Amino acid sequence: MLRGNIELWLAFITCVFIGAGYGLVLFQTREIPAAGELLGHTLGIVGFILMMLTETLYSIRKRSRRAALGRMSAWLKVHIYMGLVGPFMVLLHTSWKFYGLAGATTLLTVIIVVSGVIGRYIFTRIPRTLDGVEIEGALSQEALRRGRQFLALWHAVHIPIGMALFVSAFVHIGGALYYATFLK
Ligand code: HEM
Ligand code: HEM
Questions:
Q1: Which of 56, 57, 158 to mutate to test the pocket of ligand 2 (most atoms within 8 A of CB)?
Q2: pTM over 0.85
C-alpha cells in the first residue's frame, strides 16, 4: 500500500507540513493570511508553478520517445504529487473567498484534481507496460475495450478543463497583480 502509492503519501505529508505552517500563522496573527500579502502570495505563486509543471512535464515526457528521460510511471508519480500539493497551496492562497473569476479558477482547480484522482483509478485498472501501452490479453477484450473508451472520455474532460483553468488563472493573475499589487 505504502510502496504502491508513495506519491499520495508524500503529497499528504507535504500538505500536512504546509497546513501546519499556515495554521501556526493563523494562530499567531488571529487572521486569515490575505491572498495578496506575503504568505498568501507566496502560496499562490509556488502552488501555481507546481500546477504549471503538472500540466506540462508529464505531457512532454509522454511525447518524447527518449527512455533516458526516466520511466513514464515515475513521471506520473511526480505529476500526481505536484498535482495535489500545488492545488493545496493555491487553496490556502485564496483566503477562502471564492468570488468572480478567481472563484471560478478555484472551482476548475478542484474539478481537475478530482478528475485526476478518478482518472488514476480507471488508469490503474487497465494493465499497462511501464511505458503506458496497454497489455493485450491481461483482461478480457471486452473489458479492455470499455476501459479504453472510458479513458478516452476521461481525457476529453480532463484536458480541456486543464486548458480552461490555465486561461482563467492567467487572467486572474494579470488582473490581481495589476489592481491589488501594482496599483497599491
Ligand atoms: C490557479 C491558481 C490561482 C487561483 C485558483 C487563485 C485564486 C484566488 C482567489 C480565490 C483569490 C481571492 C479573491 C478575493 O479576494 O475575492 C485570489 C486573490 C489573489 N490572487 Fe490568486 N489564485 C491563483 C494564482 C495566483 C497567482 C500565481 C498570483 C500571483 C502571481 C495570484 C495573485 C493574487 C492576488 C494578488 C490576490 C489578491 C487580490 C486582492 O487582494 O484583491 N493568484 N486568488
Ligand atoms: C493541477 C492539477 C493537474 C493538472 C493541471 C493536470 C493535467 C493533466 C494533463 C494535461 C494530462 C494529459 C497528459 C497527456 O496526455 O499529455 C493529465 C493526465 C493525467 N493526470 Fe493529471 N493533472 C492534474 C492533477 C492530477 C492529479 C491530482 C492526478 C491523480 C491523483 C492526475 C492524474 C492523471 C492521470 C492518471 C493522467 C493520465 C495519464 C495518461 O493518460 O498517460 N492528475 N493531467
A1: 158
A2: yes
